[in-house]
Write a structure and sequence with these properties.
The protein has 335 residues and is an alpha+beta fold. It has helices spanning 3-8, 13-16, 60-70, 98-101, 107-125, 146-164, 171-188, 227-234, 243-259, 267-296, 305-318, 323-333, and strands at 20-23, 32-38, 41-47, 78-82, 87-91, 195-197, 206-209, 212-215, 222-224. 38% of the residues are buried. GO terms for molecular function: transferase activity.
Length: 335
């Protein structure tokens, strides 16, 4: 059964012939999305190979969606599903992303919108496992542990340094850089500070539907430093915010964490870990963009490589812990 037939199966037989189905632009995942126009309105169909023959109560998207919705986080409704074909029918929350709204806002409006979204982020980071969601269950059983962070660093080494930027760094330099990545990872694995993170909390995963933020692409949620999602939002590969606004919003996030009892860090420690986490997160993003460009053949991410590398110098100059890694990465970030 092809994708269009799978989608039609989610509708009553009487409506299937009249459906309009249009494929939407994809992201960096293996999922495919379609907008479906039916007699009673539109919906978004998702075809996910990972959902094929999976039980709904083991499928991360549905588990995390229910968790977020239960705690008052606005996420798309689920209208129907078929594990046999890996298809889901979701609420259509429009096409307006936070990324699209940013150029339309003045400084005051932009600050207000981002504060609203940080409030939503803190609501996510406040979620704790309860009797129905034990610590052994998704997403609380997953974290940005040593293995995960090094997987992301190694992905960058494989697809950025050894492929897309092949020849810029020699094998010896790459080996030394990996040792620095190991040391940085050790500084970021602090389970005592971990909270729930969306994991990809950037301007393309925040829809604005009827002027309300709606969170999407949350299925990879896991535990980690509260700075991880803040970095995704404020040091975004797809939009560069004014430096003064970033500082204001970092302070706002820290204050909200303190007010909600979510951190015992000092502001100085919060800022230090923000920069270290931002370095890791942006390096990881470059690895993904290089992989999409060179391996998948998806050139839509290539333009985001240079701006993301451009962030690294700020962290390197601010934090001595990153000095050696910065020297080794100079052939990439100097251009």
């Amino acid at each position: 059964m092809n994708a269009l037939d799978s989608i039609r199966q989610l509708y009553p037989v009487s409506e299937r012939a009249s459906l309009g189905i249009r494929r939407l632009k994809g992201d960096a995942s293996t999922r495919s999305y379609f907008r479906v126009t039916a007699p009673h309105g539109t919906a978004i169909a998702c075809i996910d190979p990972a959902f094929i023959n999976a039980a709904p109560d083991t499928y991360p998207f549905l588990i995390v969606r229910e968790l977020l919705a239960t705690h008052g986080v606005r996420v798309p409704e689920v209208y129907g599903m078929s594990g046999g074909t890996g298809s889901l029918l979701l609420e259509d929350c429009g096409d307006l992303m936070l990324q699209d709204e940013i150029p339309q806002l003045d400084r005051e409006q932009l600050s207000a919108r981002y504060r609203q979204i940080i409030d939503l982020l803190v609501k996510i980071q406040s979620i704790r496992p309860d009797e129905k969601a034990l610590e052994s269950a998704i997403p609380f059983s997953l974290s940005f542990d040593h293995e995960k962070l090094m997987f992301e660093f190694d992905f960058f080494i494989e697809h950025a340094l050894k492929d897309y930027f092949a020849g810029r760094l020699g094998e010896s330099a790459i080996g030394r850089l990996r040792e620095e990545f190991l040391a940085i990872t050790d500084l970021l694995v602090l389970p005592e500070h971990f909270v729930l993170n969306h994991r990809d909390f950037h301007c393309r995963n925040i829809m604005l539907f009827r002027n309300e933020p709606v969170i999407i692409d949350f299925q990879d949620a896991r535990m980690g430093l509260p700075q991880y999602d803040a970095v995704s939002l404020l040091r975004d590969s797809y939009v560069r915010l004014d430096a003064n606004l970033v500082e204001e919003l970092k302070r706002y996030h820290f204050e909200q964490l303190r007010q909600h009892g979510l951190t015992t860090m000092s502001e100085e420690e919060y800022r230090r870990l923000f920069d270290l986490m931002a370095f890791q997160r942006n390096v990881k993003a470059v690895g993904t963009f290089c992989y999409q460009t060179s391996v998948v053949g998806n050139s839509s991410f290539e333009a985001d490589i240079a701006p993301t590398l451009g962030y690294l110098r700020d962290y390197i100059e601010a934090r001595p812990e990153l000095a050696t890694a910065g020297e080794l990465l100079e052939p990439l970030i100097s251009r």
